[in-house]
Specification:
Layout (H helix, E strand, L loop, with lengths): L6 E3 L4 E4 L5 H8 L22 H14 L8 E6 L2 E12 L4 E8 L9 H16 L4 E7 L3 H9 L3 E12 L2 E11 H8 L11
Length: about 200
């Protein structure tokens, strides 16, 4: 299975690579609503980049082309019973030192609070520790998103930094929250040793 054909199966969710046929449905979930509810919690201080179905397809194609053969796919779909509900992702804060941050978006509100996000993120973090020689995995959110902080804590992440009053949303100040977990902490939590690959460039 190549980096662009990933499939991770949990008890209730499946993470899999995005296919061209998935683009219209993803676009409907992310970009079709005029004022999507999910965006009010997922970094709303950054505007949502507008896309048509075609420009979104081009954007997704370009993302995949940027991946190296040795690099795991940077974004996967989250499915529940065959229904697309969101995505998981990662990005390099500083690639040279393997500083990686993860993200998750559950676009369908009816799936909030059901444990799907926690399971998806657990699968995702385990996969990244398995595929890359990471010392830690980080998660950045903001102080209003208490659900995201609870998910991080549930997965064993520790609060590593709180930048006070550095996000403004709807005229109010919020803190930027940095959470993270080390490989050895993840190993202890999972009670097993994730496969550690060699040097990554």
């Amino acid at each position: 299975m190549s980096a662009l054909e990933t499939r991770l199966t949990g008890d209730h969710v499946v993470l899999r690579s995005i296919k061209d046929d998935d683009i219209p449905r993803l676009w409907e979930l992310i970009y079709k609503p005029k004022d999507p509810e999910w965006k009010k919690w997922d970094a709303p201080y950054y505007p949502l980049e507008p896309h048509t179905v075609d420009t979104y397809r081009s954007h997704e194609s370009a993302r995949k082309e940027r991946l190296k053969e040795t690099e795991p796919d940077s974004r996967l779909l989250i499915e529940v019973d065959g229904e697309i509900i969101g995505t998981v992702s990662y990005y390099w804060e500083h690639k040279a030192s393997l500083w990686l941050e993860v993200g998750i978006g559950i676009y369908s509100k009816e799936y909030w609070g059901g444990g799907y996000g926690s399971e998806a993120l657990e699968l995702w973090i385990d996969h990244l520790f398995h595929e890359l020689p990471l010392a830690r995995v980080g998660l950045t959110t903001w102080s209003k998103n208490e659900r995201m902080m609870k998910v991080g804590k549930k997965l064993g992440m520790k609060l590593e930094g709180r930048m006070r009053k550095c996000r403004i949303y709807e005229g109010k100040y919020y803190d930027s929250i940095r959470m993270g977990i080390l490989r050895e902490e993840w190993q202890l939590k999972r009670n097993r040793t994730p496969v550690k690959k060699g040097s990554y460039h």
